[in-house]
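All the exercises in this workshop are built on plain-text protein records. A record pairs a protein's sequence with a compact description of its fold. Backbone structure tokens are a discrete shorthand for how the chain folds in space. Once this layout is familiar, the rest of the handout is easier to follow. As an example, a complete record with its sequence and its structure tokens follows.
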Amino acid sequence: MKQNRNKKWRYALGAVLGAVFCLMTLHPAYASGRQVYDDAGIFSEDEIDEITKVADEVEDKTGWDLIILTVDDTSVTSNRDYAEEKFNKYTKSDDGVVYLFNMDEDKNGWNWYIATAGEAYEYLGDSQIEEMLDDAAKYDLDGDYAQSMIAMIEDTESYYTSNTAKDMTIYDEDQGIYYASSTNHRFLSYGEMAIAAVLGVAACLIFCLIITGKYRLKFGRYHYNPREHASVDLRRNEDHFVRQFITRRKIPKDPPKNGGGGSGTSTIHQGAGGRSFGGGGR
């Protein structure tokens, strides 16, 4: 009886140790690939570590999930769909950015795409994404793809710090409507403005017809007698000059890149998984 108990304890202890060992071996692999998925095999281990370090810092500051992808697969027909699907697969967060580099030769040898989700598309609008792609292009011409990724991630932090969301307008291209960033206020679409104009004109015509009928005005035959119905009351009014005030103000210069000011428009759409995504590529 005692031997059976000892055997059970040994089995239980062995199972616990085995589970702990599996978790210890799996955790590092998960941590190292949490942001960087280099399916194209273009990054060295040192470059992956460098990218991960920068991404960690930006994630801590923004609270977003950042996913860095490389792919060299002819079956990828849409960089936008691929980036959005991988975001849904690799993270459960509502807010984040995907930086995709496609090495497919059928796409001129290179292809960048940035996908934004949740709060991220309120900071990274259409013009910000274009500037990020410009910065990436400065390095990929020399084959320094790791530095291209780092440049875009650092741009992300810069736009977040300068709070570009405060002046951002969100355009839902599926519904054709505009929203103010971080609010539920809605701007009228062109169709709605046309309907409002028609209704306004109709209401004005109805009002005019009612007034005309009420006073029975006969256009062309109705004459108003000013001598009989009008009066004039003249009063004297004098103004005295006391003093004058001159106000001067400095006209601000155009803000530098990443420095706030007008942030423009962020175009979004319903993407993979029914989630709203912004983004752009070239």
